[in-house]
Amino acid sequence: MSAIRRPVDEDSGALDIPDRHPRLAVTILSAAGIVVALMQTIIVPLIPQLPTLLNADPGDTTWALTITLLAGAVITPIGGRLGDMYGKRLMLVASMGCVATGSAVCALSTSLPPFLVGRALQGLGFGTIALGISVMRDIVPPRHLGSSVGTMSASLGIGGALGLPFAAAIAQHVSWHALFWACAAAALAGAAGIALTVPQSSSRSGGRFDLLGAIGLAAMLVFLLLPLSKGSEWGWAAPITLGLFAAFIVVAIVWWFVERRGTNPLVDLDVATERPVLLTNIASIATGFAFYSMQLIPIQLLMAPTAAPNGLGLDMVTASLVLAPSGILMFFFSHVSARLTAAFGPRVSLAVGGAVIAGGYVVFVVALSGPWAMNWGIMLAVACLIGAGLGVAYSAMPALIMSSVRVEQTGEANGVNALMRVVGTSTSAAVVGMILTWSMVTVDSADGAPVGAPAESGYLWASAISLGACVLAIVLALAIPPRRPISVQDV
To answer: What's the pTM?
Structure first.
């Protein structure tokens, strides 16, 4: 018996979507999102060894993190726009192909330059999650859309949480080359699965690609994210840091006026500046800040020597396993977010998610400054609270975006929203990294060698700023105008 299909409402621009839930396609898309999210954290256990493995200067090997971030930030909004124009399935397969190719290049590398090329290619796959969320609007019935989008959003947290123990275990017990070969195989499987299970979208915006706008956006992001990620190393008052920030301001102003006057702009600024979209994107920056802070703070505390303030002295694999349940909670609460959104709207879900994340930071600050000793159980509870809040908040963001834009603009709008989260995480890496570095004290490690570890004041200041970001996200979410829930008849 064929699936029941609803008629197309030409005025609303809605699609003729089967009523049957394409579970296999959603599963494949979410698995692809996890693979891409892994690319952000698999490199972390290797960072101390890269100078030896690649015969490179330690300062140069930090580019293995930076170049992936920059490539991912640049491609995310561009990939979303290309998906709207030429088909989201095509761009999804291309994204996974870039991850597979980059992983293979990394696995074959014996020196730093080709390794960085591979890491940049891996970064070109970062648009997968935003594209996957967009394609779900085309293929998933409205009554299942919230939970499906939530699952795709949660893939970011699952991949991030599992990346550290996965990478540490393979690199420690097999080899670092095997780690990247495993990533290449997973990406190829994801590309094949998408090609076989995800139908081609019938909704395309058409038009010509705005190459000038893409170049301007790429330059603008490099001029912003590069000094944010390298400022602590170069010096925040160094000429190159200040010069790049100044270049960002100049390029941003020029790009804004060019895009406003363009007939087929890369980013529709009229849509991007509408109140619901604008507030959602700013809230995404704040939430991304709070998210990445909790990627930086706990791992340092868990792995700090026991002689350090609140240090627990765990190894990388054990510390990663303590934090891994947060990714599972993020997945579970993405479905809770769908129910909250259906009952109260996505703006309330975003505010609730921000409040839960804030609760995690409050518990951490109280535990850190209280009379009792810090232990891994407290850190597990904090990580789980923040993971649950992120599951709710990250699922609400695309729901807010998709309720505010036309179907043919879904890829572009979700790409820009995903970019805002990248800006938030990059800012967090700069600010929190600077605070923790500023507060470093010298202590003795387990073998008696002197090592640096953040002081309690560094953890407290970083947590307080992240808590402020949560409060900002809550306020912005509640300031978003409520919208009438979308019913089946509307679609």
So the answer is: 0.81
